[in-house]
Amino acid sequence: MRFDAVTCESVAAILPGVIDGNERADRRVRKHVDSCLRCQAELVQYRKLLKALRQLRTEVLEPSPGMLSSILAGLEEAGERGAIRSLLSGHKAAYLGGLAVATAAAGAAGAIIVVTRRRGGTAPARAA
Question: Are residues 45 and 85 both part of a single domain?
Answer without folding.
Answer: no
